[in-house]
Every structure is written in C-alpha cells, then in structure tokens.
C-alpha cells in the first residue's frame, strides 16, 4: 500500500510487511526500517539514526499506514550499527516497546563505558600491528564521536538466537547471520519465502565484513570475512524469493547475487596474493594498494576488508606472517 505523491510513506513489501525509508547523514545513504503487522501486534525492525529528519520520517511513515508509535509492541534490531539503532531510546520512550536483539549488540546499544575502553584499545593494537601510521589512529576516537552524535544509550530487553521463533510473530524465524557485524540477525518467513536481511544481503553493494573485538576478551578476534561467507552460503541454500535489505531495493534471485559476491571475494584474494608476490607488506600497505582512492577516507572499512582476505589466505596456508617491532609483515 503506497500512497503516491507523498515523500515519507511506508511501502507494502509483502502481506503485513511495510518498509519505511529513513534518511541518514552517512555515505551509505538512507536506511530501510520494516514494520511487521499481525492483528493488534506491531514490530518495528530497526529504528534509524538519532536525527530529527529520521524521527520525522519514521513518524510520517507509520502514520501513512495508520499506526502510532504507542502501538509498537516490540523493536527488533538486525545489528548494532548506528544507522540502524541510533534513535532506539527515543522510540522506546515514545512507544514503551521492548527491544530484542542478539546478545553481542548489547554493549554497543548500552554504550557500556568499560566495553568502549576495551573496544578502543583493541583497535589501537590491531591498527598498530597492521602498520597504520600513528597520526591516523585518530580514526578510533572518531568512532566514539559518531556514536555519541547519532545515538543515545539504550537497552535490550530480550535476546534472540539462531532459529528461534520471533516472539509475538510465530511465522517469523530468527537467523544468525554474522559477518557484517557480530550481532547481525535476519528474519525469515517460510510461507512466502521472504527474508528481512538487514545489511547481510544488499543488492547494489557488497556488505563489508567489519573487524570487531571478540566478545570473550581471552579469545582471538573473529574471522569476520569467513563468518560472512558462511552465512551467505547458508542463505544461498535456503528457498528465498525476496530479500528486504537494510539499504536499497529488494533482492530477487538471491543465489545468483550471493554466488557473484563469493566469486568476487576470491578475485580480491587473488589480487592480494599477486601484490604480495613483489615482497612482504603490512596490512596497511596492502590496503593502500587494494583501495588507492578510498583507503584514506574509509580506513576502518577498507582495512577490515584487507585483513579479512589475509585471513582467508592464512587459512589456506598461502601466506605467512612475521612480527617485527609489534608490526605484522605478510609474505607468500
């Protein structure tokens, strides 16, 4: 049900599923929120960033399908990134709704001070070992500034796990789809083969497998690109007619898209291997070669991508690593 001629209007994507496209101040562009309706129950999937424009768009989108914030029973977070969760606390206060998410979203949503100190230390060590110049470590502080500018501390009331039924909406199954983030969840409805995929599967861009600190501080960091590929392959094996993504248009023919993304992964891995043929390099040096026009503007994104491909080569025993003066050097 789409009303033509109006800007902030919810679009009916499937029976009982509406999309509200909310603007963000980020390079990724607008973010898609989804409203699930069944009888008297309403679930909002993601909430958008903490901006007045996002707040107005959300309210106008809900109003276009005859819903007020106070009718929302629960909020489901696909993952903890600020463009998806920033105005959670404002929505919670206006609606009284419970929030459901993966356990690993909690410290980000709560903006837990102890975790944030650990988070920054993790990235300082990661970037130093990757050979990132000292003057560029300012990007770590930028993350905290981003969080504080476009989100507010909130909380999660209930935890979701892989293959459980979504509370209040038993037609929907929760899927754990990590890689883009450690907290990433998708929702699947088998009867019409619909997946609400967050940032797991996006039509126009390949989702970045962001490096994140491990939940258990005694363990090594997650191999995020390996996780992402595994979660994509899981979805490729499923019967899915439509994917409603966190950004951009719906996805049809999901298997073809996934297979294309997996193939491009290997092509980039091959490129990295060719770059190493000329001699040893740090992850930062490889990032500059892989993404010459982008790496300075988007260093967290690009270095995550590079390290992910190094992880793949390490698993295949095609690359070796030596540590000198607390910096890792990779060679064939």
UniProtKB/TrEMBL annotation:
Domain spans labelled Metallo-beta-lactamase: 30-247
Catalytic activity: 3',5'-cyclic CMP + H2O = CMP + H(+); 3',5'-cyclic UMP + H2O = UMP + H(+)
Keyword Hydrolase: yes
Keyword Amino-acid biosynthesis among record annotations: no
Keywords on record: Hydrolase
Classification via InterPro entries: Metallo-B-lactamas, RibonucZ/Hydroxyglut_hydro, Sec-metab_biosynth-thioest
Superkingdom as given in the UniProt entry: Bacteria
Pfam family, one: Lactamase_B
GO molecular function: hydrolase activity
Gene3D superfamilies: Ribonuclease Z/Hydroxyacylglutathione hydrolase-like
Task performed by this protein: Counteracts the endogenous Pycsar antiviral defense system. Phosphodiesterase that enables metal-dependent hydrolysis of host cyclic nucleotide Pycsar defense signals such as cCMP and cUMP.
Protein name: MBL fold metallo-hydrolase
Organism, as annotated: Brevibacillus invocatus
Taxonomic lineage: Bacteria, Bacillati, Bacillota, Bacilli, Bacillales
């Amino acid at each position: 049900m789409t009303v033509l001629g109006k800007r902030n209007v919810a679009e009916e994507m499937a029976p009982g599923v509406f999309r509200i496209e909310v603007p963000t101040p980020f390079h990724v562009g607008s973010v898609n929120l989804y409203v699930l309706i069944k009888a008297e129950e309403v679930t909002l999937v993601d909430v958008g960033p903490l901006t007045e424009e996002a707040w107005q768009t959300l309210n106008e989108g809900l109003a276009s399908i005859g819903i007020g914030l106070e009718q929302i029973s629960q909020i489901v977070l696909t993952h903890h990134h600020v463009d998806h969760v920033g105005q959670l606390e404002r929505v919670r206060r206006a609606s009284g709704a419970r929030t459901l998410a993966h356990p690993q979203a909690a410290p980000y949503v709560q903006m837990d001070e102890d975790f944030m100190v650990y988070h920054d230390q993790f990235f300082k060590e990661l970037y130093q070992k990757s050979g990132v110049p000292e003057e560029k470590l300012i990007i770590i502080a930028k993350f905290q500034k981003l969080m504080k500018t476009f989100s507010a501390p909130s909380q999660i009331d209930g935890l979701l796990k892989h293959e459980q039924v979504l509370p209040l909406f038993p037609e929907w199954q929760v899927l754990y789809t990590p890689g883009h983030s450690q907290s990433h969840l998708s929702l699947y409805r088998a009867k019409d083969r619909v997946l609400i995929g967050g940032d797991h599967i996006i039509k126009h861009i390949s989702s970045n497998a962001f490096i994140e600190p491990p939940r258990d501080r005694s363990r090594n960091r997650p191999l995020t690109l390996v996780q992402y590929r595994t979660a994509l392959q899981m979805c490729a094996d499923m019967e899915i007619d439509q994917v409603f993504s966190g950004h951009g248009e719906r996805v049809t023919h999901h298997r073809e898209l996934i297979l294309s993304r997996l193939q491009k992964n290997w092509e980039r891995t091959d490129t990295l291997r060719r770059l190493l043929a000329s001699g040893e390099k740090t992850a930062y040096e490889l990032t500059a070669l892989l993404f010459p026009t982008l790496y300075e503007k988007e260093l967290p994104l690009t270095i995550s991508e590079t390290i992910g491909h190094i992880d793949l080569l390490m698993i295949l025993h095609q690359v070796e690593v030596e540590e000198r003066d607390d910096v890792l050097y990779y060679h064939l």
